[in-house]
Amino acid sequence: MAILPSFPIVLAAVCSLAVGYFLIKLCKARASFYYNKVKKGYPMPPWNPILGHLLVLNKAFKKYNLTRDMHMDDIFGAISKEFVESDSLFYVDLWPFLNPMVLISSPKYAQQAELVQDRPSDLLWSMHPVTGGPSVFATNGTEWKDTRSLLLPGFKPNYIFNQIIYSIDGAEALDMAFRIIAKGQNLVQLDRFFLEYMMKLADGQHCNAGNLLSQERFEAFTKALRSNMDWHYLGDSISSIVRRTPIIQLINSYNTRIMNRYLSDVMDERYLEWRAGKVSSLSYSNKSTLDLILADYMSKHKDKVPEVLDTAFKNWAIPQLRIMFFVGHDSGTATLSYTFYLLSKNPLALEKMRAEHDEVFGSDVTAVSYLLRTQPNLLNKLTYTTAVIREVLRLFPPASGFRHGKSGAHLIDENTGNHYSVENVNIWILHSALHRNPRYWKDPSEFKPERFLAGPNDPLYPVKGAWRPFEHGPRDCIGQALAMTTLRVTLVMLVRSFDVKPAYEEWDYLHGISLESAPKYEGERAYQAGQSGAHPAEGMPCRISLRQ
Ligand code: HEM
């Protein structure tokens, strides 16, 4: 009779195999980093043959007095200041959490990195809670190229003017909500407030599902999306560990089911309209992400249009729609919050912006909505307002650039002739550090929108390649014109009617935080906190009042 091994023995054997496998991978990863980076004398923090740079972040927290919820970009940004000689370029080895990385915050390296087309494979995994599958943001090769080309018509400047109705309607709703808040004299977290507004805009611009399914289902969808983001980006530094725990995986799957069922139903409803001939082709006014992908589907099946959308198509389309909801609302929300914040701290700039709005739209604020609907080109006259937004994006960029170096790829320092290999390395272009790099910006911490109106002989004139909130090159932000238009519409609709005052001291007092112990980064209480895109700490507590 055969003797079967007992359960504990099997378990011990499996665990030993798993540990053995992990140790072999660890040795390989560390050895590769040693031979390809450490031995070559590349710039990096002190490296440990067993732990790599796993303790570096912890040390940085202590050394720079960083707060736990700070955005990852600023944590690396703080470390980058130690690498003056390499113009703030440095490598880190955070295996098993991330592949080897090079972090850069100087225009000369960023301009080389922007030409790299691939995204890191880690990004596919890190975006998974948001997208649920490969999307245009994280895929590579022809899969990415074909999807980007398919979606591009929805982001052309002329078409965007067509879409500003969504921003105008949304800003009107915001105006009403602000009036209620002002009347009730409530303390609000402005960023959370703008999130809802931006999410509705994203729906209008990319799906228009509000017209297809009920408001309740839309709200359940947005709640599930935000929940997945909040649970998975608990301060990026710990998210990769937390995300592997079963309870988080369960929350993820639950939210994913809600989101996917919703988008699947939205697609079915719109497909019915296409099939019923209610939408015959893509008109000038009809290039939402949803319609672009459905039109493509119909054209690929024109010989025999299927009765229902097939599962393979839906599995591909849902991540594209999910990413549009995410990128369509997240960065714009933070930018809007920081714009009100900086305007309130800089009354002269606020005055100038309001004067520009009076000049372009007349002093009757109630006429703006009609003027925008009938003459959207007026937005092009808002040069000062645009300079303010650009300066806000310089000081508080909500996102960064991510690329992955192919075989043989290098970054080169033309002054020293140094070559830095980025073969099989993730490249992280740290926008916040780059935008405040004193080598490239005069008065880097000061709010000076004038730098974006200055001529080339002015010391404030931005150095080429130093301003890159939307990145450049083939992987740049597809939605930048849309984002800039939305921000201008929102500002022109609200800035003359309301005064927004940040209320961090009051917030801290209410939450038992003393003035001395309130967390700050470089003296800034509204530092960028870590949840997916960078958002103001504590959601930016504010008081809103009607302008006298
Ligand atoms: C203030 C608002 C925004 C900022 C600061 C921003 C910034 C960025 C950045 C930094 C990237 C990464 C580029 C890189 O790694 O090279 C990016 C990519 C992207 N953004 Fe935006 N974004 C904003 C709004 C939007 C909007 C409104 C949309 C569209 C709904 C959008 C769609 C995308 C897409 C699809 C990509 C991936 C492009 C690709 O990989 O081909 N973004 N964005």
UniProtKB/TrEMBL annotation:
PANTHER family: CYTOCHROME P450, P450, PUTATIVE (EUROFUNG)-RELATED. Pathway: Secondary metabolite biosynthesis. This is Cytochrome protein. Heme binds at residue 477. Coiled coil: none annotated. GO terms for molecular function: heme binding; iron ion binding; monooxygenase activity; oxidoreductase activity, acting on paired donors, with incorporation or reduction of molecular oxygen. SUPFAM superfamilies: Cytochrome P450. It comes from Aaosphaeria arxii CBS 175.79. Keywords: Heme, Iron, Membrane, Metal-binding, Monooxygenase, Oxidoreductase, Transmembrane, Transmembrane helix. Pfam families: p450 (PF00067). The chain crosses the membrane at residues 6-24. Its cofactor is heme.
